[in-house]
Amino acid sequence: MPKVVYPYTQLSAASSDNNSGCILNNGVYIQKHPIISGLPHNANGKCLGLNPPPPPPLPPPQKPASYPFNNASEFELGDFLFKQAQMSGGDITKLMDHWCSYNANWFSHNTSPFKNADHLHGLIDTIPHGDIPWQGATVSYSGPQPANPAPWMEKTYEIWYCDPLAVLEAQIANPAFANHINWSPKCVCDARGIQQFKDLMSGQWAWEQADKLAKSPMNHGTTFAPIVLSSNKTTVSVATGQNNFYPVYASLGNISNEMQCAHEDGMTLIAFLAIPKTNKTHEQVLMSSDDMLFHDSLSVILCSLKPFMETPKLTPCGHGYYHRILYGIGPYIADYPEQCLLTGVTNGWCTAETQGSQQWP
């Protein structure tokens, strides 16, 4: 077997001298990170090693599949009224009243499947399955203000988002991803020893992040999980006040490239960011301060991940085991206007130029 060359660090190069942990798979050699190795654990946090026993079977459901409805017929009726017919609340209540009257006349019991529209809507809201709920927050400009501030400087802006921690945990626990998640950074080489880059976790950045995390003994055996963000300044109008928003998406960077390309819920909408409005007089000031609102909004949205960027979180996974997850902010996919917002670079300048001395030609 040819020697696998690791260009990243002395640590990884030393581990390749004896091909420690090197796996031959479909004609390529895969070396996983020797310390941030993504080892499986049980529900109590005990490490199960490189060859874990089969995971325990899933416990039987404690509640019927139709919960919180009494039976499948009630669920199907609620689905018809709310989703298919999209019946108004008043009509649902009127229908239930007629239902009660009919049963009272013919079957001597004054009952209906639902008491009224509020009862049905309450049952729907308590369904334990479904999308992660949305929540709102407000941000405002906190920079210096002139004597005659622009209206947007004194305005509070709404942002709407899903908890990114819950989104990533749902992706990690998705059985469809169980065999398509890279639990540790890896170096991939072909039979000639030439390195191949297949996805995010096979790149140099992921390996270098793992080297930094490996300095703490508490992190040994953990899984590094970078969040990949993306945004597009597409205007979305809503009914209340005609506020303008644009979407932000998130994905777990550990998901393989093949599964990402299959669009199996690997990229999830997590937020709508506000777009400040102004007039021509204050437009230049707005452009120079828009990045403050952008970064403040992202700070609010991503705050749930922060505690687990240094302290691993024991997380159930789709293959039946648990992993100690360390989250991190990964690449941000954006076009040039969003790149300027992210880096604080003036429009027309190169966002990759750290010295800020070159303009785009």
UniProtKB/TrEMBL annotation:
It comes from the Eukaryota. InterPro entries: Plavaka. This is Uncharacterized protein. It comes from Leucocoprinus birnbaumii.
